[in-house]
Design brief:
By secondary structure, this protein is mainly α. It has 16 helices and no strands. 78% of the residues lie in helices and 0% in strands. It starts with a helix and ends with a helix.
Amino acid sequence: MSRSKALQSYIFVRLLLAPLMLWTITTAVFLLLRATPGDPIDAILGSRAPAAAKAAMRTQLGLDAPLWEQYLKYMKNLLGFDLGTSLTTRGQTVWQIIGDYFPATVELAVCSMAVALIVGISIGSLAASRPNTIFDAAGRLFGIITYSLPAFWAGMVLQLIFAVQLGWFPLGTRFPVTLRAPQDYTGLYTVDSLLSANPGQFLTSLHYLALPSLTLGILLSGIFERIVRVNLKQTLQADYVEAARARGIPELQILWAHALKNALIPVITVLGLTFAALLGGAILTEVTFSWPGLANRLYEAISLRDYPTVQGIVVFFAGIVVIASIVIDILNAYIDPRIHWSLVIGHWSLVISHWSLVIGHWSLVIGHWSLVISTSKIICRIH
């Protein structure tokens, strides 16, 4: 099989698996939401509302229909790209919620990813270029610590130090309520302030964005540090690197012009999947810093048992992850000349990784439901 045919077969299989993955995700979200305790009617009307009012609301929202009928209606609407209407914000569609809150998540994700790449690649390159030294040991320790630290705990610690004690950054939110927000062109405050030619708003937006993006970026940088360090160490031992040293090329030029280019090939794959997962996995950071993004809105919807909003946002994030993974896999297949016969076989490992990602999403949903239920029980005991 030629490389072009193997590549075509690989792309076909990846595109064929995408609808299956999305169907699995949507079905799992639908079933998990209805299997967890809690009634959305109680969240809307309150637990002490009259039974007649609850029954009327349940009928109006279609929650009294059999589960299979709700599922078929949900899938039918989904095929028409209809994510439904929020139960808690009457009349507002899920697409409108995504349009209102998603730009804040994108802005936080882009800045966090920039921090992660700069910090991770720099520390990984420094550690790999000086093996078996204190720099190598420090790079390993940095990767382990940043990879294992909980995002919410690190966020609270950094808030306590830099916002409360030192007063360098605000505690949270996206823009001060006492000032007028940038004019809405793209929804990205930093971009909109530049388009409006307002440097004051731009600096204020950066000031409020700095602490959450640094927190999330530094925690993510451990992933890139470990990948760059391991691959760059192997690349620096390659024959063509030894040949370059024999020709008298300076070590710094060998590192940046020869070795680092090949060492960054695996980073491309991780970069795409990490950024896609970052868009949906920044819940804890957004909640900790009161960042008005889509992940924070998802947390609120889970707390309020807003079925359509939770389903719509999770499906939207899942679609981003699936599309990004396909694009990155195809780009990586074109960029890396070593990928040839392993294309068709290698997609199975990617399928397994996607299943792990799906399970992680559902664990996140279940975990937040458990948090909401536990909090409700504590409040009931106090009262």
